[in-house]
Design a protein that fits this description.
Elements (H helix, E strand, L loop, with lengths): L5 E4 L11 E8 L7 H11 L1 H7 L3 E7 L5 E8 L5 H18 L3 E8 L2 E6 L13 E4 L9 H20 L6 E8 L6 E8 L5 H18 L5 E5 L3 E6 L34 E7 L2 E7 L1
Antiparallel strand pairs: 1-2, 2-5, 3-4, 4-6, 5-6, 7-10, 8-9, 9-11, 10-11, 12-13
Keywords: Repeat, Signal
Protein name: Gnk2-homologous domain-containing protein
Organism: Actinidia rufa
Length: 286
C-alpha cells in the first residue's frame, strides 16, 4: 500500500446523503496502449455491472493472462439494493476506475451503494481494512438522548455483526433498527462483508469499522464507513430499498387446543374413550 497511491475523494464528509465516492489506484505501472492487462481489465469491467446484477449483487472473476499475470476482479452491491440501483452503481464505479486508474495494476472504488475492485494479486478471501472511506454528518445526536443512543447502537451493531458473519458465501449482510427514545426516534443500521471472507474475518472487519466510528465520528446522526472488505452504516431515517438482511420474524405463538366436552350421559350404555394414533376419540360403548 505504500507505493504510489492516487486518491480521488469526491465526497467524504456529508450532511445530506449524496453518493460518497472514492477511487484508489495502487501499484502504478507504465502500461502501453495495447497492454494485455489493461485490455483485459477494460473488457471485464465493461460487463461487470451485468454480471453482478445477474448474480444477486456479488460477482468475482479470475482471468489468467499471457504475460504471467492474473487479473482478479470483484463487484459487490449493498445487499438490499434493487437491480437497477445495483447496476447503475457498478456501471458508474467501473467507468470511474477505468477513467482515473489508467496505468495501475490495482484499484478499488468505494461508493455509497457498491464497490468494484481489481488487482494482479489474489484478494477475494483476504481481510483488508484500508483504504477506507468515512462519510458522516456534521450534526450530532441531541444531548438529551446521548446515553439512550449509546445504549441502543452498540448492542444493535453487535447483533448485526453476528448475523452478517454467519451469512452465506454469496451474501453476508444484516440490517436492523431500534428506537432510542420515548418518542420512538429510531436508529437504522446495516453491516456487510465481502461474502468470500471467513466468518471470523467478517466479524473482525466489522468490529474494526465500529471502532473507526468511535474514533472518527462518535454520536453523529449519520455514519457510513466502507473498506475493501466490509461496510457499516447507520442513520436516523430509513434508507434501505428492500427487506433483504432483516431479522426473520419471531415464530408464531403456540396455539392451545382444547378437547370438546364429552357427550351427555346415556342411560342405555357406558361411555368410554379410546386412542387411535395421535387422535383422541370419545365414543359410546354399547
Amino acid at each position: 500500500m505504500g507505493t504510489s497511491i492516487f486518491l480521488i475523494l469526491v465526497s467524504c464528509i456529508i450532511t445530506i446523503l449524496p453518493l460518497a465516492t472514492a477511487q484508489n489506484c495502487l501499484n502504478q505501472f507504465n502500461f502501453t496502449a495495447n497492454s494485455t492487462f489493461l485490455e483485459a481489465r477494460n473488457v471485464l469491467f465493461s460487463s461487470l455491472a451485468a454480471n453482478v446484477t445477474d448474480r444477486g449483487g456479488f460477482f468475482t472473476d479470475t482471468l489468467p493472462l499471457d504475460s504471467n499475470d492474473t487479473l482478479y476482479a470483484l463487484g459487490l452491491c449493498r445487499g438490499d439494493l434493487l437491480n437497477k440501483t445495483c447496476f447503475d452503481c457498478i456501471s458508474a464505479a467501473s467507468k470511474a476506475v477505468i477513467d482515473n486508474c489508467t496505468n495501475h495494476k490495482e484499484a478499488i472504488a468505494l461508493w455509497d451503494h457498491c464497490m468494484v475492485r481489481y488487482s494482479n494479486r489474489f484478494f477475494f478471501n483476504v481481510m483488508d481494512t484500508r483504504p477506507a472511506v468515512f462519510g458522516y454528518a456534521t450534526s450530532n445526536i441531541s444531548a438529551n438522548y446521548v446515553d439512550e443512543f449509546d445504549g441502543v447502537l452498540s448492542p444493535l451493531v453487535d447483533e448485526l455483526i453476528v448475523r452478517a458473519a454467519t451469512g452465506s458465501s454469496t451474501l453476508k449482510f444484516a440490517t436492523g433498527d431500534h428506537n432510542y427514545s420515548m418518542f420512538d426516534n429510531r436508529i437504522y443500521a446495516a453491516v456487510q462483508c465481502v461474502p468470500t471472507l471467513s466468518s471470523g474475518d467478517c466479524n473482525n472487519c466489522l468490529s474494526g469499522a465500529f471502532d473507526d466510528y468511535t474514533s472518527c465520528c462518535l454520536l453523529r446522526t449519520y455514519v457510513n464507513i466502507w473498506s475493501p472488505s466490509c461496510s457499516f452504516r447507520f442513520q436516523l431515517s430509513p434508507f434501505l430499498e428492500s427487506t433483504v438482511g432483516a431479522a426473520p420474524p419471531p415464530p408464531p405463538s403456540p396455539v392451545t387446543l382444547s378437547l370438546p366436552p364429552p357427550p351427555p350421559t346415556n342411560a342405555t350404555g357406558k361411555e368410554g374413550m379410546y386412542v387411535d394414533g395421535d387422535l383422541l376419540c370419545i365414543g359410546k360403548i354399547e
